[in-house]
Amino acid sequence: MRSWLPVLRDRRRYIAFELEAEGRVSRGELVGEIRAAQSSLFGDLGAAKNRFRMISFDGRFGLIRCSHKRTEECRALLATVGSVAGTRAAIRVRGISGSIKAATEKYIPQSTLQPDENKRRVDLGPVSGSVARVIGREIDLCPDDRKMTEGSGTRYVGLTSFDLCGEDIDADGTSDGL
Amino acid sequence: MNFYECNLHALPDGSDSASRLALAAKRLGYSGIIITNHSTTGRPFGFEAARRVEGIEVVIGSEIVAKNPRTLHAKAASLREGSDFLAVHGGDEKINRAACEDPNVDLLAHPHDGRSGIGVAAAKAARDNQVAICLDLGPMIRLRGAARVRWMEAVRRDLDLIGKFDLNLMISTGARSHLDLRSPRDLVALAELLGLERRRAVEALALPKSILDLNRRSWASVGVELV
């Protein structure tokens, strides 16, 4: 990073958002759409004050950087996006934070699978969650309790079909050939 | 605060069922929605299912579509009984004025669609008859360029009028699908850009609840309540 006088360093806010869209949207398309909305709403002068940058976007959740004084303007800006590259979409702001780390940890779910999503459930006393995927006898489980994978840096809890012995993973009739 | 989205259109006006709108609004932080389908298209699809959605109140209102003031007054009088919330499909200058002059009406929806806005006479009438004016932010999301500039000019003028006469104000997106919905905080941020005070915007989002509570009490006649 370029060195800068600490007192003049620009302060930033990070907006964590979720994109709700009818189809797939790429990062480039989304950035283009937000930039177009920005210059339409604020003009070049106001757009420069926002200091808008797309930090990350994974197809659903994303992170935007903006100036700390312009968070409300950026919230309004994201609200004016109604479609991206011809696909109807809406941007839902999940939260605003002062650092990438805090914004990611607080507002962006670390697992791509939500516990409440209607997947097959596993309940084994201390371990409970939804099945993310099944490869042969190996099972990746998205735990209800996020703390379960803390320290290992993984999203999922690794199980095997032997762990589920007696408990029927396919009790709902959806067998995966386990 | 109890935020309500006061001017939604479900199937067949919009493209979502009432319950889908309810779920989306609940996730965005609303405590209730009012579905006001046009009086010409009938009841929204699946309104019984929407009542089963927990954690959000779903109110079925109505939005009167009328070609001239006379039919507007007739429809308002006949729909008032048995409906908790009555809106008027605004946009036309004469209809805007007539809606403001009708005490049966709760809300004048999207008065700025036809660039006309409300004007002084209608604003005075709205104050006397306690008709709320809806700031419909849908065009701000949908439109770009010159069309949005014209819309913003009309809105700015009317916001001054609303402040001057201290009219009741509601904020909505006039959503026809869950993708049109915006969270209360987004709407406040958008309204602030248009020059509305933050405090007024928050009040405007909470106003539908108090209007609904008033309408649900049983009034024998004007100012006389059955206890």
TrEMBL record, chain A:
<comment type="subunit">
    <text>Consists of a catalytic RNA component and at least 4-5 protein subunits.</text>
</comment>
<dbReference type="GO" id="GO:0004526">
    <property type="term" value="F:ribonuclease P activity"/>
</dbReference>
<comment type="similarity">
    <text>Belongs to the eukaryotic/archaeal RNase P protein component 2 family.</text>
</comment>
<dbReference type="GO" id="GO:0005737">
    <property type="term" value="C:cytoplasm"/>
</dbReference>
<keyword id="KW-0255">Endonuclease</keyword>
<keyword id="KW-0819">tRNA processing</keyword>
<dbReference type="InterPro" id="IPR038085">
    <property type="entry name" value="Rnp2-like_sf"/>
</dbReference>
<keyword id="KW-0963">Cytoplasm</keyword>
<protein>
    <recommendedName>
        <fullName>Ribonuclease P protein component 2</fullName>
        <ecNumber>3.1.26.5</ecNumber>
    </recommendedName>
</protein>
<dbReference type="Pfam" id="PF01900">
    <property type="entry name" value="RNase_P_Rpp14"/>
</dbReference>
<keyword id="KW-0378">Hydrolase</keyword>
<dbReference type="GO" id="GO:0030677">
    <property type="term" value="C:ribonuclease P complex"/>
</dbReference>
<comment type="function">
    <text>Part of ribonuclease P, a protein complex that generates mature tRNA molecules by cleaving their 5'-ends.</text>
</comment>
<dbReference type="InterPro" id="IPR002759">
    <property type="entry name" value="Pop5/Rpp14/Rnp2-like"/>
</dbReference>
<dbReference type="GO" id="GO:0001682">
    <property type="term" value="P:tRNA 5'-leader removal"/>
</dbReference>
<keyword id="KW-0540">Nuclease</keyword>
From TrEMBL, chain B:
<dbReference type="InterPro" id="IPR023539">
    <property type="entry name" value="RNase_P_comp-3_arc"/>
</dbReference>
<keyword id="KW-0255">Endonuclease</keyword>
<dbReference type="GO" id="GO:0005737">
    <property type="term" value="C:cytoplasm"/>
</dbReference>
<comment type="function">
    <text>Part of ribonuclease P, a protein complex that generates mature tRNA molecules by cleaving their 5'-ends.</text>
</comment>
<dbReference type="Pfam" id="PF01876">
    <property type="entry name" value="RNase_P_p30"/>
</dbReference>
<comment type="similarity">
    <text>Belongs to the eukaryotic/archaeal RNase P protein component 3 family.</text>
</comment>
<keyword id="KW-0819">tRNA processing</keyword>
<dbReference type="GO" id="GO:0004526">
    <property type="term" value="F:ribonuclease P activity"/>
</dbReference>
<keyword id="KW-0378">Hydrolase</keyword>
<dbReference type="InterPro" id="IPR002738">
    <property type="entry name" value="RNase_P_p30"/>
</dbReference>
<dbReference type="InterPro" id="IPR016195">
    <property type="entry name" value="Pol/histidinol_Pase-like"/>
</dbReference>
<comment type="subunit">
    <text>Consists of a catalytic RNA component and at least 4-5 protein subunits.</text>
</comment>
<dbReference type="GO" id="GO:0030677">
    <property type="term" value="C:ribonuclease P complex"/>
</dbReference>
<keyword id="KW-0540">Nuclease</keyword>
<keyword id="KW-0963">Cytoplasm</keyword>
<dbReference type="GO" id="GO:0001682">
    <property type="term" value="P:tRNA 5'-leader removal"/>
</dbReference>
<protein>
    <recommendedName>
        <fullName>Ribonuclease P protein component 3</fullName>
        <ecNumber>3.1.26.5</ecNumber>
    </recommendedName>
</protein>
